[in-house]
Amino acid sequence: MRLLFMPPYSPELNPEKYIHNYLRGKLLDNRNFKSIKQIGYVVGRFADTMTCDGVRSVATMALI
Q: What is the Rg, in whole angstroms, of the alpha carbon atoms belonging to the chain?
């Protein structure tokens, strides 16, 4: 593991932001859920089906 120091404001360098936006855009936007449990199920299925290459491609979208 290597620590990288980022500038105070650098959203383009935060891969978590891109994964979050992808998740919201593909699974959560414009949908009504009956319970928190149902949201957890949908997010869990998403996490189970994502491959390392899929995560890498989503997390590096801004670099392309």
A: 14
For residue 26, what is the DSSP state? I
For 18-63, write each residue's pLDDT tens digit.
Answer: 888 888 888 888 889 999 999 999 999 988 988 888 888 887 765 5
DSSP 9: S
Q: 41-62 as b/e, with b when 16 or more CB fall inside 10 Å?
A: eeeeeeeeeeeeeeeeebbeee
Residue 18 CB neighbour total at 10 angstroms: 19
The alpha helices in the chain, defined as continuous H runs, are: 15-23, 36-49, 52-59
User: What crossing angle do the helices spanning 15-23 and 52-59 adopt, rounded to 10°?
Assistant: 110
pTM over 0.70: no
